[in-house]
Amino acid sequence: MERHDDGAASLPDDADERQRQLTRMGNAAWAAGLSLLMAGRDEDGRVWLLRAAERYRESWPNAPAGSWGRPIGAMKSRLIAGDREGALADARWCLEAGAAESESPIGRYAAALAHLVRGEDEKAGALAVSLRDRDDLPRAVAGSLVALSSSDTSAYETAIRELLDDFGGREDFLEDIPVADTVLALQALGARRGLAVVLNSPLLPPTKRGRASA
């Protein structure tokens, strides 16, 4: 929290340095939000996740081309926080920025996520299928996106459990916060489609364990 507030108090004028600092502030807010969720402080966590989304969005105008992690981070933050309207706005930003036309897998991942947020499942599915056999994106992420886009209950349960297992085998987490954040975001999308799965893991907030909801 202090890192975010300290950054806000000393934003540089240089455009490149400013976008970098805004991204660091977004990451700090993200870490604070997830830490609060893991402590069972859902409302406080939600506030910080929304701040993270705002900082990622603010960093975009001067970001290097192809910085698709920023709209992904913003959408995931809002999905986990339960901010549907904000997620829709960030999905629109992502698609208007050209994510669906990106040659990079991270860009197509961003676009697939955005289409799912908007309920455009057929478009999401077409993009998600193209990510299935890549080595630079976890197969369980692509599998979850495909299953969500087709409302395939069995495939989604298999993929989301595989993704949670994948997180369990990781040593590196953003800001060193061991939370299965992508699982939380996808579960929010799954809940809207009646697909959310009951999951239990120390990598999930206590209020999300044993519940088929985001």
CATH topology: Serine Threonine Protein Phosphatase 5, Tetratricopeptide repeat
User: CA-to-CA gap between the ends?
Assistant: 24 Å
Could you name the ranges where pLDDT drops below 50 across 5 or more consecutive residues? none
Order of helices and strands: HHHHHHHHHH
> Mind telling me the CATH class?
Mainly Alpha
What is the number of domains?
1
Biggest β-sheet: count, sense, barrel? Answer: none
- Would you tell me the overall average pLDDT? 93
Beta-strand proportion: under 5%
Count of helical regions: 10
How would you classify the helix and strand content by structural class? mainly alpha
Give me the CATH architecture, please: Alpha Horseshoe
Helical proportion, percent range: 55-70%
The shape, in one word, is globular
Protein described:
The two termini are 24 Å apart. With 214 residues, this protein is an all-alpha fold. The mean pLDDT is 93. The longest helix has 24 residues, at 15-38. It has one domain (2-192): Serine Threonine Protein Phosphatase 5, Tetratricopeptide repeat (Alpha Horseshoe). The protein has helices at residues 2-8, 15-38, 42-59, 69-81, 84-96, 105-117, 121-129, 139-150, 153-168, 181-192. The chain contains 10 helices and no strands.
